[in-house]
Q: What sequence folds into this?
């Protein structure tokens, strides 16, 4: 499905990114394997993971080039795209998968913990998409796949930085889709459920949390790759501005904010009539204070 295509997968030195990079290569794409080789919190760095996955692809008979630039830096993102263009002659798709975690309850979260996560996830997605957009516009084609999260789409404890970044990525994806549809550029999101280094940091403090972790362990990173490959391919030419969730063998199309219910008053509103009339009428349709695990309660199939 990707014969002749050139794809960049960020954060592809392991986990979900690695499986996506390998799947892209198996479908004929030349792949730029980007990974800075840092810790889960984004510290340190090594060329090893990117090189190892690039070597795996070559061993399979595919084409790959490693890259260790950081997506959080605009110049770094441009170098990642240039690696694709200089090595393989073009760029057709970007998978914005790179990410870090610095979890903390909101009232304990530091400015550094907030900034670091937004820089990699949200700024990283912007930097990569913006660097690719120049080439996409010139060639009148291109695909972007952003890895969002149900932590942002629904909610989670102790992840204000991560949740804000991931929900921001879905809005960024929609804006790119609107602005660049005239250049045949598509932008979609995937919220993955899969066991990975990032998920392994989930704290286990009771039996309920332990059961949830065991459930996630059943969902392997390779389950995410087929949808990512499809969205990067020409077969997805009519799929744009959508948000999907992959959970083991399940694929969900996620809702996007739309009006749920309205209330009208000819005389206009006062604080008192809002309290007495509007809120009681709307309350039955309030969105509950759910976490991701509250919505996805059933066992993966």
A:
């Amino acid at each position: 499905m990707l014969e002749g295509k050139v794809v960049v997968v960020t954060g592809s030195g392991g986990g979900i990114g690695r499986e996506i990079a390998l799947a892209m290569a198996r479908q004929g794409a030349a792949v730029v394997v980007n990974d800075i080789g840092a810790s889960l919190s984004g510290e340190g760095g090594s060329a090893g993971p990117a090189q190892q996955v690039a070597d795996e692809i070559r061993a399979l008979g595919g084409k790959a080039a490693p890259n260790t630039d950081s997506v959080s830096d605009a110049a770094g993102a441009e170098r990642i795209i240039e690696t694709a263009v200089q090595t393989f002659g073009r760029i057709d798709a970007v998978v914005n998968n790179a990410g870090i975690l610095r979890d903390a309850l909101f009232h304990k979260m530091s400015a550094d913990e907030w900034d670091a996560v937004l820089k990699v996830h949200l700024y990283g997605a912007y930097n990569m998409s913006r660097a690719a957009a120049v080439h996409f516009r010139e060639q009148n084609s291109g695909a972007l796949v952003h890895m969002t999260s149900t932590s942002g789409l629904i909610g989670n404890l102790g992840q204000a930085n991560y949740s804000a970044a991931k929900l921001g990525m879905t809005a960024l994806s929609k804006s790119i889709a609107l602005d660049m549809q005239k250049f045949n550029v598509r932008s979609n999101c995937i919220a993955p459920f899969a066991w990975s280094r990032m998920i392994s940091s989930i704290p286990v403090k009771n039996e309920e949390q332990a059961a949830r972790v065991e459930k996630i362990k059943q969902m392997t990173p390779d389950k995410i790759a087929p949808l990512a490959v499809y969205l990067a391919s020409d077969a997805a030419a009519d799929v744009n501005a959508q948000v999907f969730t992959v959970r083991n063998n399940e694929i969900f199309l996620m809702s996007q904010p739309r009006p749920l219910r309205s209330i009208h008053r000819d005389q206009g509103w006062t604080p008192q009539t809002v309290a007495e009339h509007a809120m009681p009428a709307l309350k039955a349709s309030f969105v509950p204070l759910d976490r991701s695990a509250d919505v996805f309660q059933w066992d993966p199939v």
Summary: DSSP finds ten helices and eight strands in the chain.
